[in-house]
């Protein structure tokens, strides 16, 4: 989510210090969360700054390189598995339990997809069933004509 503008932050601070308005009313008036107003005021009191805090350290990935390679191997062996099934298989093989959304993020990191195209599969099944039926019908007609020749 994008940080609120400095202009909005300054308006909230100015309105609060003019007095006569609660934090809850401020949040309602400026259509922001109460928790945002609380954090903004706390930050202003402690640092004197209203600038959005910059994230200094990226959260490390949940899986190490060897666990990512295990996940890639699992996907290769079970390319039709759901995220939940992949999660369970990864837990069995590595002992690391992660959420379905984390499995999805790790697959994106590996540039792997497990999306199923059920429409294409259904269409292929219907087409192959129709084709099989036609072949059988044509074959039986052919056999019928052939038996007439004998």
Automatic annotation (TrEMBL):
One family name in Pfam for this protein: HTH_Tnp_IS630
Q: Which SUPFAM superfamilies match?
A: Homeodomain-like (SSF46689)
Highest taxon of source: Bacteria
Which Gene3D superfamilies does the UniProt entry name for this protein? Answer: Winged helix-like DNA-binding domain superfamily/Winged helix DNA-binding domain
Q: Which residues form the Transposase Synechocystis PCC domain?
A: 3-85
Its protein name is Transposase Synechocystis PCC 6803 domain-containing protein
Give the species. Answer: Chlorogloeopsis fritschii PCC 6912
């Amino acid at each position: 989510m994008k940080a609120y503008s400095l202009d909005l932050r300054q308006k909230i601070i100015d309105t609060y210090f003019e007095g006569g308005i609660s934090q809850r009313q401020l949040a309602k008036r400026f259509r922001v969360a109460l928790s945002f107003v609380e954090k903004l005021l706390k930050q202003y009191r402690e640092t004197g700054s209203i600038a959005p805090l910059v994230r200094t350290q990226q959260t490390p990935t949940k899986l190490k390189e060897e666990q990512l390679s295990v996940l890639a191997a699992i996907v290769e062996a079970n390319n039709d598995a759901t995220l939940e099934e992949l999660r369970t298989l990864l837990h069995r093989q590595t002992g690391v339990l992660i959420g379905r959304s984390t499995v999805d993020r790790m697959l994106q990191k590996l540039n792997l997809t497990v999306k199923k195209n059920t429409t294409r599969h259904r269409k292929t099944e219907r087409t192959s069933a129709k084709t099989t039926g036609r072949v059988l019908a044509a074959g039986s007609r052919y056999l019928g004509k052939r038996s007439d020749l004998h």
